[in-house]
Design brief:
- It contains nine helices and nine strands.
- It is of the alpha/beta class.
- The chain has a domain of about 160 residues: Rossmann fold.
- The radius of gyration is 18 Å and the shape is globular.
- About 40% of the residues are buried.
- The C terminus is likely disordered.
- One of its GO terms (molecular function) is S-adenosylmethionine-dependent methyltransferase activity.
- It comes from Kingdonia uniflora.
- This is Methyltransferase type 11 domain-containing protein.
């Protein structure tokens, strides 16, 4: 059972990765990846071709070892103390807010998973409702964009106690690296998304190392992007994830000449 807490504010009726530093080339990379659920027409079409398979988990992405954490203590204990700081830099926040501005429509219903005291939503846009989820009540209560919030450990219980097809967008900001059952969480996200709804996941090279899963800790910037793409692909019904990769800083020219550049172009990423 979970409890929803109304926030004190008035009621209003893609995977993004932060710059990742490579010691050899001193370059930074920003990546955006988004995926949508089936549209209404696609939902109707899928009924005739696949007996309600949309939302099913097609395969597991992680091995049992890949799900382990160095710190196995309950996450509720680790996050008991509020951290009222931003875990990413201003450039990342600006890019993320710009992405939300382009992809999230006014009047939408938004679920902010694994949220904190700030959601990085554009301040000038009003949404019908923004529901937040996290592990620290004090942090969530400080978030002025949330109409309601609830506290739940998704590593213990992945079920979202919400109606199906109830949100236009779901966000997961710089926290996907801590999910031990990402396949189940992504399937639940698909369930609560409205037809054609969008799921935007963001992450950074910054992390609580002891709380990140082994598959993330042992990975590279490239492999982490591919890991999240596989999370989307393992759930029946998500569209092909859209990946946008942006380089900035002094390493941009070097990056364009590096082997990594042709890999990102091959993946359909956008550099600039």
């Amino acid at each position: 059972m979970i409890t929803f807490h109304p926030n004190t504010k008035l009621w209003y009726p893609y995977i993004l990765t932060q710059p990742q530093s490579f010691k050899a080339q001193n370059l930074s990379i920003k990546t955006a990846i988004t995926a949508s659920s089936l549209s209404s027409n696609q939902h109707e079409s899928s009924k005739t071709t696949s007996s309600s398979s949309a939302g099913n988990i097609k395969r597991l992405v992680l091995t049992q070892q890949g799900r382990t954490k160095m710190n196995s203590a309950p996450d509720r204990e680790f996050y008991a103390y509020p951290r009222l700081v931003t875990h990413v830099d201003n450039g990342f926040i600006s890019m993320l807010t710009g992405l939300y501005r382009k992809r999230l429509e006014p009047g939408w219903e938004v679920l902010d998973l694994m949220s904190s005291w700030v959601s990085h939503l554009p301040s000038e846009i009003e949404y019908k409702r923004v529901v937040g989820h996290g592990l620290n009540t004090q942090e969530l209560a400080k978030n002025q964009r949330l109409d309601y919030f609830f506290v739940k450990d998704l590593n213990q219980d992945q079920e979202l106690e919400m109606e199906s097809c109830s949100f236009d967008a779901v966000l997961c900001t710089v926290s996907v690296q801590y999910l031990q059952q990402p396949e189940k969480v992504f399937a639940e996200v698909f369930r609560v998304l409205k037809p054609g709804g969008i799921f935007i996941v963001s992450f950074s090279n910054r992390l609580f190392y002891e709380k990140a899963i082994s598959a993330w800790r042992d990975g590279t910037g490239y492999s982490r992007v591919q890991l999240v793409v596989q999370y989307f692909q393992c759930v029946e019904g998500f569209t092909q994830p859209e990946t946008i990769r942006k380089l900035s800083g002094d390493g941009k020219r070097m990056a364009e000449q590096s082997p990594f550049a042709w890999i990102t172009r091959f993946l359909g990423c956008y550099l600039g």
